Fold Bifunctional diguanylate cyclase/phosphodiesterase.
Amino acid sequence: QAKAAGRNGVCFFDRRMQADMMARALLEMDLRQALAQEDFALYYQPQSDSLGQVTGVEALVRWRHARMGLVSPLQFIPVAEETGLIVQLGQWILLRACERLAAWAGSPETARLTMSVNISAREFRHPRFVEQVQETLLRTGADPSRLKLELTESLMVEDIKGTIAKMESLRQLGIGFALDDFGTGYSSLSYLKRLPLEQIKIDRSFILDATLSRTGGAIVHSIFQLGRDLGLTVVAEGVENEAHLDFVLKHGCECYQGYFFSAPLPDSALPAFLAMHGVRQVRAVRQGNCSP
Ligand code: C2E
Ligand code: MG
Ligand code: MG
Ligand code: MG
């Protein structure tokens, strides 16, 4: 079939590749400009405890594009990673998230909220990452013990020693860690006990499966069990409906997020949401809770 396509087939393929490369290059140029202009916004997805009270939020970046409107991070984070622009973008994200966190500390209703921030592998591996986080904390006055960094399994595969060392030095500052998209990567379970983690976040694909099949349910059940055995909070992601929520609560879920509780909200919509749902105020007894 490939032969039958002949020169035209090859030619077409080349053109398409060229078009892809052009689109990429344009996107990269756009991204650079957007960074200079700060055309980004953070949305915050509330996280709930088992009683429906807000324990914290996850910051999720959006690109405010002049022509395309709000662009999903799924579309530009990979390009930012490839081009290295993620380092600069990540700094901006952390700064904004820490500013929000510091502002919350001023009011007793919000002072206990945690802020989770996604960190790309490339950002984390940057030699000045720890310093930069420290600078941002100093500059904003945010409480490091309210900050959680979400890392993915890709970091565990390569240079595990270096990863642990960096995590340890950030933990010295009081910062906590969550392992994001748990179960979708290739990391070995043995890393779980070596890493200074507080949370594992079950990827939403597993939550979806859990309510659809017995084996799917068994997997999620085992992850909760594993979390309990290792003293880690298991956060359920992508809880979209009552069936999902019933399932995770039945298996001892202490913390979840998803459209059923709330979509990611713009800054302006947060106060009303918090006022409606209440922020968990009780001090958690077990270490590693959603809001320790
Ligand atoms: P993630 O960290 O796993 O974030 C969860 C994603 O699931 C978010 O998508 C969120 O909006 C979406 N979500 C939340 N609840 C539900 C639900 O009930 N159903 C469904 N179907 N989806 C739900 P979003 O905001 O598009 O972000 C996608 C990914 O992009 C994130 O996955 C994260 O890996 C990356 N990302 C987002 N913001 C940042 C950031 O500030 N920095 C970095 N490095 N990566 C980010
Ligand atoms: Mg995340
Ligand atoms: Mg995730
Ligand atoms: Mg992710």
Observations:
- The pocket of magnesium ion (ligand 3) is lined by residues 180-181, 201, 203, 237 (CB under 6 Å).
